[in-house]
Amino acid sequence: xxxxxxxxxxxxxxxxxxxxxxxxxxxxxxxxxxxxxxxxxxxxxxxxxxxxxxxxxxxxxxxxxxxxxxxxxxxxxxxxxxxxxxxxxxxxxxxxxxxxxxxxxxxxxxxxxxxxxxxxxxxxxxxxxxxxxxxxxxxxxxxxxxxxxxxxxxxxxxxxxxxxxxxxxxxxxxxxxxxxxxxxxxxxxxxxxxxxxxxxxxxxxxxxxxxxxxxxxxxxx
Length: 221
Ligand SMILES: NC(=O)c1ccc[n+]([C@@H]2O[C@H](COP(=O)([O-])OP(=O)(O)OC[C@H]3O[C@@H](n4cnc5c(N)ncnc54)[C@H](OP(=O)(O)O)[C@@H]3O)[C@@H](O)[C@H]2O)c1
Known about the structure:
The protein is α/β, with parallel strands linked by helices. Helices cover about 25% and strands about 25% of the residues. It contains six helices and nine strands. Strands 5-4-3-2-6-1-7-9-8 form a nine-stranded mixed sheet, sandwiched between helices. Helix 1 runs parallel beside helix 3. The protein is globular and about 45 Å long. Bound molecules: NADP nicotinamide-adenine-dinucleotide phosphate. NADP nicotinamide-adenine-dinucleotide phosphate binds next to strand 1, strand 2, helix 2 and helix 6.
């Protein structure tokens, strides 16, 4: 599976404010770029922290671009939540619509929560004891036909994907604002690396709206 991570950060690397509420970082040109990236993916994923903070639907994508890539009958990209304990609310926007959303979960998910999400139309894939085992979960997704996965955050999930050596490409929109705050989420949170830092090669850089898009390839993953 090919994994593309995409996110928008402030000039100081924050994904949102210290209240963990979504903030406007990018503009229309970047939204259009993200819609094209979604259209190229088999599935689009976020962590449950993002679902709880922002309630994204992730349905919007560039339909014309998808038709060009996949043909006019192509189904929309599948949506995915990484959620060890099935904390995704049953009325979350990410569970609305077709195709069904995958919830990657773990053995720690209580039965009543699993049942609630299955009743809301989610397809559950369990991998890992306490936390989602990302290599195994992405392997299970690949068996469902997901060859290209776009991950849209947040910082905890992105860090874990880097830690597991699962990221192929990183694209970041860096917007013209400063957010600050030591508790504000950054692009990669988690425990952080002390050594063996993942290395990136810059593929492209371009100006968009009032910011810049950086596209990096992950070296030696
Ligand atoms: N600017 C942007 O582009 C952008 C994009 C997305 C999000 N955001 C912002 O980012 C913030 C949310 O980010 P976040 O870091 O709190 O949440 P997140 O990365 O979306 O989700 C993290 C959660 O995923 C679950 N998870 C399950 N298995 C995991 C694993 N192996 N590794 C990591 N996480 C795993 C964990 O909860 P369980 O253990 O309970 O499952 C964990 O707390 C919000 O403020 C949102 O607005 C910004």
